Amino acid sequence: MVISDRTKNILEWILCIVIAFILAVLIKYFVGTPTVVKQYSMYPTLKQNQRLILNRLARTRNEKPERYDIITFEAPSNARDMITEEEVDLSNPVAKYENEPTTWWEKFTYYVLEIGKESYIKRVIGLPGEHVQIKDGKVYIDDKELPEEYLPEGMRTGPVDINDHYLDIIVPEDCVFAMGDNRTASTDCRKFGCIPFDKIESKVWIRFWPLNLWGKVE
User: Fold this and answer.
1) Which terminus has fewer CB within 10 Å in the chain: N or C?
2) pTM of the entire predicted model
3) What are phi and psi of 128, to 5 degrees?
4) Which of the four CATH numbers 3.40.50.300, 3.40.190.10, 3.40.50.720, 2.10.109.10 does domain 35-216 have?
């Protein structure tokens, strides 16, 4: 069978496109990817419509998050639920993930292509084994007030609404307690519990838009 030059060219282009797609997916999942800030929960550190580069090498290398890191993680399945006090288990304050994909194709499109996946951007506050308390408008770690210089003057930390029950907990192993810097308008671990390490997707690295704010995000 003789393949014409035109057919060869088409096949070569198809091969190039397939290789480019695979490389793009691998880089996005294992190295880094751009994203857009869509909400106000990290204001004033991050503002709506700012563009960021997310560093995913930490996940690839299984590096543990550190306090004050700004991370992204898969939104818990109970993030938007009304949570009653009777439903809260303070002895195991871990966020729920009950709508996980089951087939290999669903897992690929959800976890790798991130189609239909919702993620949150928050700041790491509590680490495994630490006693986190939110009281009197402040955060305490192991009974010591946590310095939070990134918060605007006058910002107080407390429950946002009646669904915020995780205000005095021990952070479980392989989990973090994270909150948005905009404490009065952030749905975070105060409501849904601590985030397992394996649900953390990336660390916020660089802000590249607007250009006058280009640089590392802290």
Assistant:
1) N
2) 0.91
3) -50, 135
4) 2.10.109.10
